[in-house]
Amino acid sequence: MYAGISSVLNSFIQSSIQVAEQNLGDDFAVRILKTLFLVKYYTQFKPTLHNITILMLESFDQDVGKLKQRIEEALGLLEQQTYIQKNGELFEFLTKEEKDVETEIKNVELDGSDISSTIYELIFKDILASTRITYSKLGIDYKYAAKVDGELKGNPAELGINIISPLSDNATGEAAVTMESASADDLFVMLGEDSVFIRDIRLLKKTELYIRQNQRAGADSTRQRIISERGSQNQERRRKLKQRASGLLADATFIARGHVLTIGDSDPKARLQNGFQTLVEKVYSNLALLAGHSYTEKDVAKFHTASKEELLQGMEVQLSEAQQQIIDYVSAQKKQGLRVTLKSIEERFERKNYGWPSVAIAANMAALCGMGKLEARQNSNQLTDERLIAALKGNRDHDSIIFDVQVEYASSQIRALKNFYSSFFGASPRASDGSGIAREIADEFQGLAGRLQNLSATAYPFAQKMEDARATFEGLAAKDVAWFMSELATMEDELLANKEDIVDPMIGFLGGQQRQIYDKAKAFIDGNQANFDVAGADLADEIRDILGQELCFKGNVMQSAASKQAELETLIKNALEAKRTKARTKLEEMKARLHVTDEYTAADPDKKAAADAEFESAGQAIDQQTVIPLIDTQLSNFSNQTFPRIISGLAQTSGGTLKEDVIGIRSVYFVPKKTILENESDVDAYGEELKAALKEQIRNGKRIST
Fold this sequence. Notes:
single chain; alpha+beta; six-stranded mixed sheet; three-stranded antiparallel sheet; 15 strands; 61% helix
């Protein structure tokens, strides 16, 4: 049919087919291309693989399976060569303009994260369509971290859903993923292999990017029509990709905490939600301590009132397992002298292995306060009844709600605290009561920790000492009033000694001349490593030892380093000058040898001047070199490379042609038969080998500079 109409077709229309006939090298593929051309504008015909197979049948007894396979291979070739495009299940002939656009689309470069980002959008935004999943047994909404092949795509969260895509090395590695999941807090979803899914995503993203880059006013109308069609096709492609992603999820393998999960539901969203239920139970193993109670905000007041009434009626108070866990935690923190806030309690019990919702924590805290087990304060004011309920239910200032027991302190304890403040901080506290003084000391410790943090001693050997001191002061700043009143005295002598012997000298070092001396000595040692192989190695080692001392900030250590550095600088300076003088002498010797050569004698004044300038340049380079061993390298390079080149340059003919080529003797290459010379015979043999190599160069028209 195509042959019958080809004579009346515009040559521009036929160009793609003509190019295919000349270059494709596959007559059957060309026949299919012509067939797709014929049906291109007949919209009622859908050019799927099945329908194309029917069109290409030549007889009723033809093997349809083999024909379909052959057509599939031909379509793949045509698509690869951009004669056609595949959109979903349909294959479409491309005109020359369409082919140009399609080629440009294929050549669009994608960022490495484009594919995984699209998988994230398809699964988490289009299918799951929520940033939280409800744990149905208790009605708790949990955030999750959306991941694709381990890469976080959304906001971080303690629990995660990790999609193992066809791009992953572990796409089919169930054993490896199961092992990885054993210590992870993620639900692993293995989509399996699907090259078509990945290919269509690439085409989707390339087309999107191409359209954004090429939609502009004033462009060719035909081209804009094609781009617009590609945009419409891309919308359909995305819809089908969502369907394909749903199918992959329906067949996916779900794994959590080292176990492959059995999930019967076929709905992709339901499968993700059901798998997440199991993850919650495996990660939050103490969630069961809530005894299946689904907490609401009303429970905060309800629990407080019920506990208070039981206490007033003289009933024996029974703690639930959840309340006992809270009491145990608060008691342990108090024993360590730490402030216990509502925020710190929430951080403890909202995370693994608990996963309790904040309303459950607030309700149980209210119960404990109601039964007299805990006392709450905020800004030094005790919280009771309605104020306590409001504070627990509120969303603000949880770090200022402190759970503590008010204690009466003796005057001797207060006096001891004042004396410590004066001795350690060199001033008197503003407060006069024990709690106020304790808080002032905590604030001063926090300020001192911040000062040490800002000084930054990472470049110095006492960095760990400073970090230890900072951590100590920061830890002390977190202690509560009771600890300062009863336990500070046991550490007083140690803290004062540490401040005088360690902390103050470190601060003085970093803020004074000692730091400058250290930095200068360190820079000199680092910058002259190669020179110490020539001179001053022992002295350099002594300075390194000083700079490496953890207590280099004490006493006159830095003054000793400065003195030794001055001595070492003199040694290096003298050794450098001696090496430069020796090198300049050798340059002058080579220059003198050059001046008596026939080439130099016969050269014109300009060439002589150019040759002499090479020596002058080499001498300047040696004078500027500060690394002693490199002077020998410079001299060797000049002798073996530059010197022969100078002679060759002098030997040039007036027409610019080299009469002969001069090379350095070190450039003569040969492979000796023996690597190690052990006796005189070996030496003689080596000499003969060298002599043969030198003669070979002479026979090849070379001259050799020694």
